[in-house]
Amino acid sequence: MHCLPSLVMALSALLVALGVLHLWLFHHQPSCYGKHEPCQPKEGKHPAARAPRRAHLPTRCAWFLQELPAFLVPVLLLALRNPPRFAPLGCRLLGSMFCGHYFHRTFIYSFFRRGRPFPLKILFFGVLFCIYNGFLQGYYMVYCAEYPDDWCKDIRFMSGLLLFLFGMGVNIHSDFLLRQLRKPGEFTYKIPQGGLFAYVSGANFFGEILEWFGYAIATWSLPALAFAFFTLCFIGPRAYHHHRYYLKKFTGYPRSRKALIPFIF
Ligand code: NDX
């Protein structure tokens, strides 16, 4: 396999377009899983109209299956390239940052997740998305990325890596705090407390967004920037809808808390 820059351009552009499409389609109504299920009736339908029953899978199993391709596809690409003992920097960044994130998301986060069963239909699209993105990021870093020998000393690499690690810390810690809100088998929603939840309702999402912008800066690559943009378009509105949900559900919800970005939004 060789690097096809036009393929990378086209797939990255499509990822950006999917992000914009997502903002356009879902800015007024959240993606329909977790606390936003059952879905709001579509415009023009009577509010009492019952949505058809959707098939679901236990949340742990669903998240494992959904996230696995984002780990497996780049690992397969790395294995196919069979990088030498001192692998190119692109392969090492892909292995440690991107696959590191998805190793945690697939093999650790999924098994600790507590929550409502996950809709099969969203799982199906989630799997497709993870294959697509895993391929794009993996293909670029394995076959296209080239870095100068001293890239590790470059300010872009160092600041991006720091942002990535900080975002990952915030994301993992916030997801941990959400898990602690419930006893096993419980499905009720409570007010998140502690960590960055003191400032924003979507602390886990804020962390994830920082993480992928950090990855984009550290790798200075178009596909990584496109994925960071998509993440912002998908989980940014989700944080906003979570925030509105909390304000409506809990009368004592802290008014100074923002939706996604501390002190700003
Ligand atoms: N999965 C990323 N669009 C998505 C699945 C759906 O990993 O076709 C994007 C991901 C996919 C989506 C994925 C991409 C776009 C798709 C979409 C389906 C359709 C869409 C493919 C792949 C599509 C077009 C057409 C435009 C292309 O009961 P419960 O489950 O609610 O419990 C929750 C619990 N919790 C609480 N417990 C007690 N009290 C409270 N107040 C609580 N609040 C929450 O915590 C959960 O068990 C848990 C976390 O819930 P929540 O809602 O805070 O986070 P969640 O959305 O489940 O995300 C979990 C983690 C989080 O760290 C987040 O940052 C990360 O995954 N994530 C999530 C989504 C996407 C993503 C990262 C990314 O884009 N990077």
From TrEMBL:
One GO biological process term: androgen biosynthetic process
Membrane topology: Multi-pass membrane protein
Every 3-oxo-5-alpha-steroid 4-dehydrogenase C-terminal domain range: 117-265
GO molecular function: 3-oxo-5-alpha-steroid 4-dehydrogenase (NADP+) activity
Gene Ontology CC: one annotated term: endoplasmic reticulum membrane
Signal sequence region: none
Keywords for this protein: Differentiation, Endoplasmic reticulum, Lipid metabolism, Membrane, Microsome, NADP, Oxidoreductase, Sexual differentiation, Transmembrane, Transmembrane helix
Protein role: Converts testosterone (T) into 5-alpha-dihydrotestosterone (DHT) and progesterone or corticosterone into their corresponding 5-alpha-3-oxosteroids. It plays a central role in sexual differentiation and androgen physiology.
Reactions that this protein is recorded to catalyse: a 3-oxo-5alpha-steroid + NADP(+) = a 3-oxo-Delta(4)-steroid + NADPH + H(+); 5alpha-pregnane-3,20-dione + NADP(+) = progesterone + NADPH + H(+); 17beta-hydroxy-5alpha-androstan-3-one + NADP(+) = testosterone + NADPH + H(+)
Native species: Python bivittatus (Burmese python)
Protein name: 3-oxo-5alpha-steroid 4-dehydrogenase (NADP(+))
Transmembrane domains' residue ranges: 6-26, 123-143, 155-178, 187-206, 212-235
Enzyme class: oxidoreductase
Annotated InterPro entries: 3-oxo-5-alpha-steroid_4-DH, 3-oxo-5_a-steroid_4-DH_C, SRD5A/TECR
Subcellular location: Endoplasmic reticulum membrane; Microsome membrane
